[in-house]
């Protein structure tokens, strides 16, 4: 009701989840965490050459799932440099050192990056469950619409492969390579 008048209008419930490319990946001394904090556009992911933190984008770049040549050279102080894979690797090494100091166990950089991406996928899957299955909806009868860049498009594909949705609407180009190792959890 607005000013005593009942207003009826068609609406669509939308639920967002902070698990996109800018989501910050960190180790809290006991476990990996992804988001909900975001590096934003400035400073952005470490690979943007702005001194930013490790993000989902950095993990995808390190694992070769992002094609740097597909991105314009708009990064760095002057805004004319390409993505920096070495910055992504350096941030992953920092996390690896933290893990080894805290837990007394070493992990490869690929294991760390994959671990963060699995968490990002789980965050998105939990958001889907919250607004669908938890409310009694049969998700196989609906279309998952993916928004965002690399993370949204690739992770929507992971959800489809796992049988969570009957179909998906994904934008046509996400500046990335398809991957068979995407976790379908």
Question: What report would you give on this structure?
Answer:
The structure is a single chain. With 185 residues, the chain is α+β, with helices and mostly antiparallel strands. It has one domain (23-169). It has four helices and four strands. It has helices at 56-62, 85-103, 109-131, 150-161, and strands at 23-27, 32-38, 143-145, 167-169. The strands form two sheets. A two-stranded antiparallel ribbon has the order 1-2. Strands 3-4 form a two-stranded parallel sheet. A hairpin with a 4-residue loop joins strand 1 (23-27) and strand 2. Helix 1 packs across helix 2 (85-103) and helix 1 crosses helix 3. The radius of gyration is 19 Å and the shape is globular. Mean pLDDT is 80; it is low at 159-163 and 172-185.
Strand order of the largest sheet: 1-2
Give the overall form: globular
Integer-rounded radius of gyration: 19 Å
Mean pLDDT across residues: 80
Oligomer: single chain
Structural class: alpha+beta
Order of helices and strands: EEHHHEHE
Total E-strand runs: 4
* CA-CA gap between termini: 41 Å
